[in-house]
Amino acid sequence: MVADWGGTTAIAKRIRDGETIAVVVIAAPEIDSLIADGKLASGSRVDFSKSGVGIAVRAGMSKPDISSSEAVKKAILAARSVAYSSGPSGSYVAGLFQKLGIAEDVKGKVKQPSSGVQISDLLARGEADLGFQQVSELLNRTDIEYVGPLPPEIQNITTYAAGLHTAAPDAAKALVKFLASPSAARVLRKTGMEPG
Description:
196 residues, alpha+beta, D-Maltodextrin-Binding Protein, domain 2, 2 domains, 8-stranded mixed beta sheet, 9 helices, 8 strands, 37% helix, elongated
């Protein structure tokens, strides 16, 4: 098998456009949608990890206070530029800006790259000062400053799942079984995700 990485939105589009992929690993609601569309095997969804939304800043910038929803709101308003993904975390963050009452105030400084573009890359290149993405996408980068997860009162957890093509080989099935195993749980925790 060959592994290929992409954002949730881009992967789902590739499959809907007819590409055959043995194992698909993306946000659980998209797995359900692909199963409903007949693109993945019925009953093949296996949840294996969860990740919350994190915040990071460009390297060398001071870390803002993000201890409460009000502190996060102040950090967003104070930033010169803000980036969030076009995947599950980005959809949530766009709604969060609405909920915090700042969507109109910040729309001129928000950057939302295409599916699969890492927010940490924008931060590392100096294209944004404050970035939001899954904790697992930000935590282990050395060229940015990971600030921390959103506070509990405004946190959003995404469940990641694997789904199988109807003609998936045994190796694909073994991979999915491994992803949900205790051995994989240790690796998931190291990358900022929680098993489950």
